[in-house]
Design a protein that fits this description.
With 460 residues, the protein is of the alpha/beta class. The chain is built from 16 helices and 19 strands.
Amino acid sequence: MPPVFAPFTDAALPLHVIDQDECANWLQQRPQQVSDWAQANSFTAACGQVLLVPGDNGKPDMALVGYGTAAQRARRRFVLAGAAEKLPKGVYTIASGLDQSALAMECLGWLLSSYRFDRYRNQGEMKAGLLAPEGVDSAAVESLAAAECLTRDLINTPASDMGPDELQAAAEALATQFGASISMTVDEALLDQNLPMIHAVGRASDWRPRLIEMNWGTSGPKLTLVGKGVCFDTGGLNLKPGASMGLMKKDMGGAAAVLGLARMIMAAELPLQLRVLIPAVENSVSGTAFRPGDILTSRKGLTVEINNTDAEGRLVLADALALADEGKPDLLISMATLTGAARVAVGPDLAPFYTDNEGDAAALAAVANGSADPVWRMPFHDPYEARIEPGIADLDNAPAGGFAGSITAALFLRRFAGESRYMHFDIYGWNPTAAPARPKGGAGQGARALFAALPEMLNL
């Protein structure tokens, strides 16, 4: 059940969000018993600190929540969420302390705090509910939360229950919910439809490779989203060591992020034509697996030398991007858990993106922090083009040397995006450590920032 605001009740407990630097002044303006109670309980309004203040009847009269200092908040996302899970059972209403610019995102954090991945075990429920504050579009906030929860659920589900079949079922369910059309090109039909690299990567698995396509909207600019759907990545014949294979259920995180973004777009009824393409495969090992040294011919006609079968994501994306470009979209975006090099560069919190369009980069930068979805622009560095040109074929899927791995992967993909206005996200899709509203596990990255930037990017 997606997280939602609590139903209205007159019994909701007022909640005051207090800046640590203003705590003393705030308490001085309250009745003496409130100040005395806060002092007796060492309440200083530190980040995430919670205090219930009793009334004359002994029952709670209000709740105080610490908001820390501006410097502390700059190092966190969803500060209010750090307190939300500490509050006892009940319904709360924000009475003071948050300006309009922070209100919606802090409410989103509260809702996301209630997320539990409980498919295999009861994880308990969050006890504190929140009333939607005045001035906040509650439906829009709930939609953002539902999209993030969809993405998290898809990534968190192990490959035993989230192969290409199940990823297809998730896309079909989303299409049904919002009245989108959906179609699949499966197994040998990929060859018939000239999607040979998707087939090559997935042909060794018992889970048959496929391209999932969803379309929604009949007017407005054309937006095409392409998401990497490698439901498990063994590394292929360049087999990963066990430690590196442990998180490979998340290698379909690009597809999960794209579906989350598509959900936001359709729920908001943005006036555009949406197309979603997801190459869904398992990179497995068998006698039919593609091999190091093979040369594959792509949909675009470019030949690709395989120097590492563990660089498979860019292969399946390449065919999907070439197909997308043929549709002449006004904007083409790919999202993928593509390279470990991106994590080395920016860590797990930031979502690196590539674009040659200065306006699109500026639009993202303007909204990312306000969306609590930080991104960082990386360069399509043209001088590195030579690194992906092996000589024996048009392209090399895994240039030797290890330098600039995220950039060379992005340059590889750009070759297949053709003349389209193109943006690529090399996301991690995972929280390695728990934080307020961001539990350890699957995570959406880049989708909220993109959703907030789309009106500017597409002149909606």
